[in-house]
Design goal:
The chain is mainly alpha-helical. It has one domain (about 10-100). It has four helices and no strands.
Length: about 100
């Protein structure tokens, strides 16, 4: 299988995607918790998370970056974004590599 094309994602888009993934993980964890283990604050969080998820998904989906791509590149880029490292991780890795 050929390597996926590299995309130059804006930092804010990467951060939005990671925030969306974290919200989704939190929501999934709360939903998976057995009712007898639920805490009172879980109910409030379960009420707030769907709205936060929608807002974050909208920020990712409507980001201006997508306007510069066409056709199958849009799908490839959206899939690649899910695995894009945070800018801080990239910077830390390059600093660590230069220290060797």
């Amino acid at each position: 299988m050929p390597d996926a094309p590299a995309f130059d994602f804006p930092h804010d888009l990467i951060e939005e995607q990671h925030a969306l993934a974290n919200l989704r993980a939190r929501y999934t964890a709360l939903c998976a918790r057995p009712p007898q283990e639920a805490e009172p604050q879980d109910a409030a969080e379960l009420e707030e998370l769907p709205g936060a998820l929608r807002e974050k998904a909208e920020a990712v989906i409507t980001h201006p970056y997508w306007g510069q791509l066409t056709g199958p590149d849009v799908v490839k880029a959206r899939m690649a974004l899910k695995y894009a490292p945070l800018p801080e991780v990239i910077a830390a890795g390059s600093r660590a590599g230069s220290a060797l």
